[in-house]
Design goal:
The chain has about 260 residues and is α/β, with parallel strands linked by helices. It folds into two domains: about 5-195, 2-enoyl-CoA Hydratase, Chain A, domain 1 (Alpha-Beta Complex), CATH 3.90.226.10; about 200-250, Lyase 2-enoyl-coa Hydratase, Chain  A, domain 2, CATH 1.10.12.10. Helices cover about 45% and strands about 15% of the residues. The protein contains eleven helices and nine strands. The strands form two sheets. The protein has a six-stranded mixed sheet, with helices on both faces. A three-stranded mixed sheet has the order 5-7-8. The longest helix has 19 residues, at about 75-90. The two termini are about 30 Å apart. It binds acetoacetyl-coenzyme A. Acetoacetyl-coenzyme A binds near residues 67 and 132.
Length: about 260
């Protein structure tokens, strides 16, 4: 794995780090491919319970690489946009809790990458937004869909139509962020959040994520059926046997799960 994208694992928590600060972590095609590979590895590895996405202390990511895109035509972008979707879907598809730790700018593709996480902690001076309209395009890495599902259609339209920057306080108020912290505390707080899942019931966590994410895109009856099937499926796991037996014998919250 290149230095531009690293997957660092400590005590069950993986950090997926983008490190191209001099270009504000602009997500070029190479970085996108490396994020996709890192996301698939994080999904696959049994020694990883949860994932922190970060761009470091200064910037999360200022978007897809505009300099790389500037001279592309339709045919090239049709292929490249499929790859960026593959990359972001790989991140959103990590079947484990994923948190974005946001310092500085999370704009365009950077904001869209943060939207692939399950929750978002940010610095009080973080700046989010979808400024693609100012480039004569629209968000192309899931922003029109994931932002809308998170903050609702009118807020998403206002943000995407205007391309304006959204400050951290406002982002927190509208549900685009989940917690604001002093800049130096964002990453440690995200790691702490991720740590709670180490030794957790891996399959139940994955089922909860799947039920919520799949259910968000379907009608209520279908969503309820997805939940019911996943719930019943967990009765085939060792963790649910351990969890319920531990409750009956020792009271709540004492189960030691195996992840099987
Ligand atoms: N692509 C390529 N390079 C970028 C970049 C991007 N998205 N964002 C910043 N950079 C580069 C700058 O060109 C500059 O490089 P050089 O030093 O080589 O000139 C370097 O990063 C530092 O940036 P600035 O000098 O612009 O820093 P600033 O502090 O003055 O401004 C900023 C910061 C407001 C974030 C500004 O850089 C900016 O507006 N960036 C672009 C934001 C944007 O439009 N993002 C959307 C991209 S399109 C997209 O993401 C499509 C999609 O949905 C998939």
């Amino acid at each position: 794995m290149s230095d531009l994208v690293r997957l660092e694992v400590t005590d069950g928590v993986a950090t997926l780090r983008i490190d191209r600060p001099e270009q504000l972590n602009a997500l070029n095609a190479d970085i996108q491919a490396r994020i996709a590979a890192a996301a698939r590895e994080a999904d696959r590895r049994d020694d990883i319970a949860a994932v922190v996405l970060t761009g470091g202390d200064k910037v999360f990511a200022a978007g897809a690489d505009v300099k790389e895109m500037a001279d592309l035509g339709y045919a090239e972008m049709a292929a490249q946009s499929a790859r960026i979707h593959e990359c972001f879907n790989a991140v959103a598809g990590i079947a484990k809790p994923v948190i974005a730790a946001i310092n500085g700018y999370a704009l365009g593709g950077g904001c869209e990458l943060a939207l692939c996480a399950d929750v978002r902690f940010a610095a009080q001076n973080a700046t989010l937004g979808q400024p693609e309209i100012k480039l004569g395009v629209i968000p192309g890495a899931g922003g029109t869909q994931r932002l809308t599902r998170l903050v609702g259609p009118s807020r998403a339209k206002e943000i995407i139509f205007s391309g304006r920057f959204v400050g951290a306080e406002e982002a927190l108020r509208i549900g685009l962020l989940d917690r604001l912290l002093p800049a130096t505390e964002v990453y440690p707080a995200a790691v702490e959040w991720a740590k709670q899942f180490v030794g957790g019931p891996r399959l139940a966590l994955s089922a909860a994520k799947q039920a919520i994410d799949l259910g968000a895109g379907v009608d209520l009856a279908t969503g309820l059926e997805i939940e019911r099937q996943l719930f019943a499926g967990l009765f085939a796991t060792e963790d649910r046997t351990v969890g319920m037996r531990s409750f009956v014998e020792n009271g709540p919250g004492k189960a030691r799960f195996t992840g099987r």
